[in-house]
């Protein structure tokens, strides 16, 4: 039996429902306790029925927080665990990277495939839809199949998607390739966090979650710079040729290092619930995209604008109805099911709910910011595509370097200080962007983005880690799936919202490159920064309340 396997009981706890509260608290509350104290607490819980003692224990568990800890020599991260995180993390990183790489290639692909802007956008929208639909199934897959088998499937599907992308000669073929890549990313994202939560030593949870969140926090920002650099020097297909060796190496490492931390069992798949979730997120994303199209059409100074906006308006309403309806039906089916696709009962925990919404909003702000950094300098400051893409690199590198540091701070000091301190820093940056307005320069924008990503990297992974500490051990796979699903949804929504605001200001502002057009773009960006600042302020309030006992 390996070291990771021997650590499983300390991580997952007894599957008797009476033990989950105690095990969850022991798992994430890093305060030192004597064996006698823990045994007594567990014994009192086991023997309680309707006694006040049991009620007190459960109330304490529901508000469990992450307290400071000091690592012991036994809390060692095994080489197999490192290899597992590197292999699955590389797969997830490539999946998310290629998502934003495509945005830079849109103008070139439109000419090559003879399609318009609204059609080519489906290469990103379709990808996000597939990821959003795949992630909720991760809880079922985690209990039904071995993690190594899930990883191998995701990796081979991703490689197939890259090959089809390279060979694509038509829009439908390229869209099919993006669907394959979306399936691979949708399988890899929750798998990476499940591996960390189930196999990591308790004193290293924060650090490793920070390392894992490095993938989801920095890959979207690196995509435009990577795509712009490669496409400026080689055919765009070279991007996908270059990532295939990375996927092959990750496949080999994963096959060697991924171990199975728990038993699997045959269970029926809630196909009806899966369809409702897929329809729900598909409808919402389509509704947001088409709503943005309608707003942009209505803002254009044209005599037939209402007629032009009619179809987007209808599609936006239909998408919202299907999306909300699908999620409501899913909730009803899940509540009635003995083995639901996702256990929605975790949402009754107010602390977990606050963390989940904060995580989602932070992702929307950061992805939206990542869209503005390479685009605003091109549209309002006259910088080249390559230079604008490179402006995002320093901030992305800072995010990559300090994500694990944020986890170390959580392991050392608890969740409150790194999350709230970093959120204040991020809010200060956005307020500064609003105040500076048209005095902004490309280098100053890049510098402020570095400060923002520093704050983001110190708190983003910790929000997820802290939120998952508030639910029972056997429900963390459900919580992980919710975090990953809403993260993808927030990314799509964030990009759409900030792009629409800029587009509205640009409407009727003259030709691209003119003085009025540049000033209008700066005004739109300034409003974007204000909206993002308000959202980050809301995040700060949510986290202050949720972590009020983690002093």
From TrEMBL:
It comes from the Bacteria. Residues 1-71 are annotated as: Disordered. The keyword Kinase does not apply. Residues 35-47 have a biased composition (Polar residues). Signal peptide: none annotated. InterPro entries: MFS, MFS_dom, MFS_trans_sf. It holds the Pfam family MFS_1. GO terms for molecular function: transmembrane transporter activity. It is found in: Cell membrane. Residues 48-71 have a biased composition (Low complexity). Keywords: Membrane, Transmembrane, Transmembrane helix, Transport. Residues 23-34 have a biased composition (Basic and acidic residues). Its main location: membrane. The keyword Acetylation does not apply. The chain crosses the membrane at residues 81-102, 122-141, 153-173, 179-197, 209-230, 236-258, 270-289, 309-333, 354-373, 385-407, 419-437, 443-468, 489-509, 529-547. It is a multi-pass membrane protein. This is Major facilitator transporter. GO terms for cellular component: plasma membrane.
